[in-house]
């Protein structure tokens, strides 16, 4: 199968060099029909061994993620005073965690990071910034670790959504928002809520989790990754937007540009999930060279 797809340019400042358009670069990627449990991907109703865990996860996440909670977390974790470590050290910390929100994967997270990055690398060999984005996009899950306050899963993983405006029906397990106090607050429960048309996602408070945290970490540690990479990290769990086109009234033009890259990224993030293990030691030198190129040796977390 040959998919011919035009590559968008990462929306960065004018100084950013334009990326070459390589027309057949993603010809190799075959989207699998089923996940490791024999179901289609992201099927939240399928009777799999993960169903109850995932459902219970979303009950809590939808009940507890409020404007007040998000503001509190952004302030606390924005201090970046929890640890000092390299990107690779953080990857290793993720070895022990399994994501309770994920119907498609029960492998430790480090496997998922490398599966994503390696799948992108195969199809986009020249886009090293996108390989590294694959490696680091879920590092915010380190919030589950004791030295980061051991946050509960509902405050770290799962799909994300804006708070401060009505919860769109395209959110998975939407029914659980009934238990969220913001749902009854007239300031927060209208289509626009506290936002205005086209205000730009940058001005929108998203539910708190690994995306928002890793975005803060990358930005504050002055990564040289392009803005498309930062956008991917920040919104990769915002499925209502990138899959269902909900909340698009909050986007501005720059968001539209970056969204093109996020959609490409998402294919690899989602469909590379499998039981096929990557040889960590073999690929480690390559990824270490990328972290050196785009990040300081030690980051503040
Ligand atoms: O269960 C998954 C998982 O937590 C991913 O890391 C996140 O990005 C997805 O959006 C979510 O649905
Ligand atoms: Fe994620
Ligand atoms: Fe991921």
Termini separation (Å)?
A: 42 Å
Query: What ranges have pLDDT less than 50 throughout 5 or more consecutive residues?
Result: 1-6, 11-25
Which structural class is indicated by helix and strand composition?
mainly alpha
Fraction of residues in helix: 25-40%
Q: What general outline do the C-alpha atoms trace?
A: globular
Number of helices: 10
Q: How many domains comprise the coordinates?
A: 1
Order of helices and strands: HHEHHHHHHHHE
Strand order of the largest sheet: 1-2
What is the residue-mean pLDDT, rounded to a whole number? 91
- Main beta sheet: strand number and arrangement? 2 strands, antiparallel
Q: What's the total number of strands?
A: 2
Bound molecules: 1,2,3,4,5,6-hexahydroxy-cyclohexane, fe (ii) ion
Give the amount of beta strand, in percent.
Answer: under 5%
Over the alpha carbons, how many angstroms does the gyration radius reach?
18 Å
Pfam families: MIOX
Binding site for Fe cation: 112, 137-138, 210, 236, 269
GO molecular function, one term: inositol oxygenase activity
Protein name: Inositol oxygenase
What do these coordinates show?
The chain is an all-alpha fold and 301 residues long. The chain has one domain. The protein contains ten helices and two strands, in the order ααβααααααααβ. The chain has helices at residues 51-64, 67-77, 87-93, 109-123, 128-136, 210-220, 227-235, 239-242, 253-271, 280-294, and strands at residues 84-85, 299-300. The chain has a two-stranded antiparallel ribbon. Helix 4 (109-123) crosses helix 9 and helix 5 packs parallel to helix 7. The protein is globular and about 55 Å long. Residues 1-6 and 11-25 have low confidence and may be disordered. The structure holds 1,2,3,4,5,6-hexahydroxy-cyclohexane and fe (ii) ion (FE2) (2 copies).
């Amino acid at each position: 199968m040959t998919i011919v797809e035009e590559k968008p340019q990462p929306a960065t400042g004018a100084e950013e060099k334009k990326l070459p358009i390589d027309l057949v670069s993603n010809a190799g990627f075959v989207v699998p029909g089923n996940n490791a449990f024999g179901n289609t991907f992201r099927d939240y109703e399928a009777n799999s061994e993960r169903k109850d865990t995932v459902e219970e996860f979303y009950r809590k996440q939808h009940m507890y993620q409020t404007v007040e909670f998000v503001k509190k977390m952004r302030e606390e974790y924005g201090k970046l005073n929890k640890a000092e470590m390299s990107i690779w050290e953080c990857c290793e910390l993720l070895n022990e965690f399994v994501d309770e929100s994920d119907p498609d994967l029960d492998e430790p997270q480090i496997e998922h990071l490398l599966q994503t990055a390696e799948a992108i690398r195969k199809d986009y060999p020249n886009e090293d910034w996108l390989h590294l984005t694959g490696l680091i996009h879920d590092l915010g899950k380190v919030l589950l670790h004791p030295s980061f306050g051991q946050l509960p899963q509902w405050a770290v993983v799962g799909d994300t959504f804006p708070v401060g405006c009505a919860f769109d029906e395209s959110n998975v397990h939407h029914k659980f928002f009934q238990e969220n106090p913001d749902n009854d607050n007239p300031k927060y429960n209208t289509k626009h809520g506290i936002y205005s048309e086209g205000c730009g996602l940058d001005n929108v408070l998203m539910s708190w989790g690994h995306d928002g945290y890793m975005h803060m970490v990358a930005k504050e540690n002055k990564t040289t990754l392009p803005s498309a990479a930062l956008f991917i990290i920040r919104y990769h769990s915002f499925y209502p937007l990138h899959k269902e086109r909900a909340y698009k009234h909050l986007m501005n033009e720059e968001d539209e540009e970056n969204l093109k890259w996020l959609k490409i990224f998402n294919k690899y993030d989602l469909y590379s999930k499998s039981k096929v293990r990557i040889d960590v030691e073999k690929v480690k030198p390559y990824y270490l060279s990328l972290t050196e190129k785009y990040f300081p040796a030690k980051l503040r977390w």
